[in-house]
């Protein structure tokens, strides 16, 4: 837009000042060059500049407001604004300066949103500059160069009026060679809450302070007596260390009026780190020792002190994804039982580790998005208070103010509706000082405006931020809470918010399933995932029955199954699949350590015999099963009754089954392990048994034995006859000699019966009933079992 020609020749100092201000006002507002990263209301995006903002020069400079103190000033304060200006254009800016502009107070919460989204300078909307003496001269600003600025202005010079939220803007005014007249070349807006006296009806503000992390523990444990836990990685140690995310949350939260919302799995995981733990490597056997014991112990100690005197809400163990359960898991048999188990475990875990009694009657669906099915699932596990969000349970009436958070939604259940604007205020990138400053000022402005909506009504307001805020997000959150200073809010616990008297005109109808956000639905755990979870649970149930030290297996796998349903997997679907598969594979590998040793074919040389079957147990604890042997040709071969077998850890046990052959020929025999509750355990083992009559070889051996016995009898008879004859000839004196010769003959040769028995094949020795760990290879080939 062309500038008024008659103003260019003005030479007096007063005229030059007037020219500079008027020229700045008449230039149309361009888009702001700096990226304004204030979290907007859900679904909000940058909109095109208003039609009056047509000037092209104001997008040239990026104005960054890095700090603003005090955030909620009083009349006697001095407002200090610090930041930087950067020339993003293509030519040098001359005679530039930075000034502060004060706009009109906001008329409502929607006005705050509109100003936050507006990016162009408007002379009618951005107000006038404060007195010239508070400007900071920048002078020449070459392309790509940044300059720091500090504006210090007594609050009384801002000429603020009634209590309210005021728009303030920091702008750079300058000129270029091609546009040699003063103009706004960059602007950044923020908000200044102004409250001279305390509000007559302060809002009761409940701020949730979440301690939640991703899954770190695996289902694997060490083979030692202590069952050393094995972690997926050692990343949690960095979060617990000074400056880490979780350390900052505890350090900041201990001095704030907040309600702690804790995932008990995080406590259990950190508690496991206080002792010796291992970190898995590329393979299952490749582990290294964890190094986070010291920071874990310090963090738990600090947390235990921090939560004293505060309300603690425990989520179900591992923070299960309620929406996924409601939309995809509830039709999978047994899925909902995991939620009940996780809820029961929550209270015990928090009480044991932190020594405080938590509340477990609150459910927190992801992003506070609810529908009727989510409410049904959450309440099925005993949570009768559902933390929702106002962009899910929207107001459909004609209320002109934000109602109290509590809503009665039927069935004795309460929806505690968190304010969406306040809850999403710090979801952006808070690593930049500018982003944190703007987010803090916007949070304060929205909270004050909420109170000003209906100053004669005291309402309860709940803030439910993101589940896992970063360290810088937590710092911004803490700064905003600390700045409230009690002028228009007062702290309240989540329990108090749930008990507050609901506004009868507020929305109480829970939306249907179709209203659930599509973006959140796409992140849910798939139905097939719940089927795999149930498969793992079924495997664990069957395995548990045979164990004697059940806790060594049931506890780590039970908690691992709960972790498979964690809300944290929404941001890592590939990791979710990998974790489920690894748990199932590891459990399956353990079950296979108890098995039957494969047998080769067996030959029975007779009508009855015993067949040994060997059970191997490579676990570290004894197991008890029932072993059943079945003949597939019962008319040919019958086997004895099933037997209960107990096998010590690291041992094998041979079980002998009696058999009776009714006919010659081949018979197939199967061996199957069963649990004591009669469920098949492991694969069936089959082997072949060859049944034969008494063989020709055996007959020859027996006949030879009989012949030898006959010959031996004849010889004895002849010897005795000759001896009797000699006795008659030599008389009684020779009887002793004859007896000696007979004895000498008896010792000279084996007894004929012994010779016969020596030719009869002996029974092969059976394996020892209980042996140490041995190879699971096939039993020796050509195994022959005789009567």
Structure description:
The protein has 787 residues and is of the alpha/beta class. It has a six-stranded mixed β-sheet. Strands 3, 4, 5, 7 and 8 form a five-stranded antiparallel β-sheet that branches. Strand 29 and strand 30 form a beta hairpin. Helix 7 crosses helix 9. It starts with 12 loop residues before the first helix and ends with a strand.
Which blocks of ≥5 consecutive residues have pLDDT under 50?
Answer: 1-56, 732-767, 779-787
The number of distinct helices, counting runs of at least 4 residues, comes to 20
Report mean pLDDT, rounded to a whole number.
85
> Structural class of the secondary elements?
alpha/beta
**Widest sheet, order of strands:** 27-25-29-30-23-32
What is the beta-strand fraction? Answer: 25-35%
How would a crystallographer describe the biggest sheet? 6 strands, mixed
Radius of gyration: 44 Å
- Beta strands, count: 32
Give the fraction of residues assigned to helices.
Answer: 25-40%
């Amino acid at each position: 837009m062309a500038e008024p020609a008659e103003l260019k020749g003005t030479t007096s100092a007063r005229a030059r000042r007037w020219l500079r201000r008027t020229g700045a006002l008449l230039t149309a507002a361009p888009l702001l060059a700096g990226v304004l990263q204030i979290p907007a209301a859900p679904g909000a995006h940058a909109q095109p500049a208003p039609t009056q903002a047509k000037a092209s020069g104001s997008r040239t400079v990026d104005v960054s407001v890095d700090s603003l103190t005090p955030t909620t000033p009083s009349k006697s304060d001095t407002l200090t604004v610090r930041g930087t200006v950067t020339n993003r254009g293509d030519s040098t800016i001359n005679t530039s300066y930075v000034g502060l502009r004060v706009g009109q107070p906001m008329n409502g919460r929607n006005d705050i949103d509109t100003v936050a989204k507006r990016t162009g300078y408007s002379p009618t909307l951005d107000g006038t500059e404060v007195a010239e003496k508070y400007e900071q001269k920048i002078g020449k600003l070459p392309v790509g160069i940044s300059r720091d600025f500090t504006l210090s202005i007594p609050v009384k010079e801002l000429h603020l009026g009634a209590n309210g939220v005021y728009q303030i803007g920091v702008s750079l005014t300058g000129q270029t060679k091609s546009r040699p007249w003063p103009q706004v070349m960059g602007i950044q807006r923020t908000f200044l809450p102004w409250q001279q006296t305390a509000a007559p009806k302060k809002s009761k503000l409940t701020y949730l302070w979440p301690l939640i992390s991703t899954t770190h523990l695996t289902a694997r444990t060490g083979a030692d007596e202590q069952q050393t836990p094995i972690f997926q990685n050692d990343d949690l140690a960095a979060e617990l260390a000074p400056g880490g995310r979780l350390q900052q949350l505890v350090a900041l939260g201990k001095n704030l009026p907040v309600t702690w919302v804790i995932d008990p799995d995080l406590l259990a995981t950190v508690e496991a780190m206080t002792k010796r733990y291992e970190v898995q490597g590329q393979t299952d056997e490749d582990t290294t020792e964890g190094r986070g014991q010291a920071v874990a112990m310090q963090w738990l100690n600090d947390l235990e002190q921090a939560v004293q005197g505060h309300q603690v809400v425990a989520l179900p163990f591992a923070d299960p994804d309620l929406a996924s359960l409601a939309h995809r898991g509830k039709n999978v048999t047994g899925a909902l039982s995991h939620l009940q188990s996780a809820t029961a475990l929550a209270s015990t875990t928090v009480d044991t580790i932190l020594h405080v009694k938590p509340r477990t009657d609150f459910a927190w669906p992801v992003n506070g998005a609810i529908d009727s099915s989510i409410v049904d699932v959450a309440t099925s596990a005993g949570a009768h208070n559902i933390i929702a969000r106002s962009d899910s349970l929207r107001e459909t009436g004609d209320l002109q103010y934000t109602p109290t958070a509590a809503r009665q939604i039927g069935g004795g259940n309460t929806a505690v509706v968190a304010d969406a604007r306040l809850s999403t205020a710090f979801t952006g990138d808070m690593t930049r000082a500018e982003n944190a400053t703007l987010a803090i000022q916007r949070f304060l402005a929205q909270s004050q405006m909420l109170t000003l909506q209906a100053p004669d009504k005291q309402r309860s307001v709940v803030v439910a931020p993101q589940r896992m805020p970063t360290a810088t997000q937590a710092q911004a959150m803490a700064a905003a809470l600390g700045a409230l200073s009690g002028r228009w809010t007062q702290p309240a616990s989540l329990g108090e918010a749930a008990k507050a008297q609901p506004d009868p005109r507020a929305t109480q109808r829970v939306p249907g399933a179709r209203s659930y956000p599509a973006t959140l639905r796409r992140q849910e755990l798939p139905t097939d995932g719940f089927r795999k979870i149930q498969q793992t649970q079924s495997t664990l149930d069957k395995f548990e029955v045979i164990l004697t030290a059940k806790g060594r297996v049931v506890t780590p796998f039970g908690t691992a199954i709960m972790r498979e349903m964690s809300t944290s997997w929404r941001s890592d679907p590939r990791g979710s699949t990998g974790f489920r598969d690894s748990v199932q594979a590891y459990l399956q590998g353990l079950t296979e350590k108890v098995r039957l040793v494969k047998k080769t074919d067996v030959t029975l040389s007779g009508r009855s015999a015993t067949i040994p079957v060997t059970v191997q147990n490579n676990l570290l604890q004894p197991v008890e099963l029932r072993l059943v042997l079945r003949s597939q040709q019962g008319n040919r071969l019958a086997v004895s009754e099933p037997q209960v077998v107990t096998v010590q850890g690291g041992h094998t046990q041979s079980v002998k089954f009696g058999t009776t052959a009714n006919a010659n020929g081949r018979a197939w025999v199967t061996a199957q392990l069963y649990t004591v509750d009669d469920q098949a355990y492991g694969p069936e083992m089959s082997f072949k048994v060859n049944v034969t009559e008494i063989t020709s070889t055996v007959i020859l051996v027996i006949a030879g034995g009989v012949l030898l016995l006959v010959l031996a009898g004849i010889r004895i008879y002849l010897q005795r006859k000759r001896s009797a004859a000699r006795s008659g000839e030599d008389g009684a004196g020779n009887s002793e000699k004859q007896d000696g010769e007979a004895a000498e003959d008896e010792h000279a040769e084996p007894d004929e019966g012994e010779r016969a028995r020596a030719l009869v094949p002996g029974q092969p020795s059976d394996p020892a009933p209980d042996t140490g760990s041995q190879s699971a290879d096939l039993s020796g080939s050509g195994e022959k079992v005789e009567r």
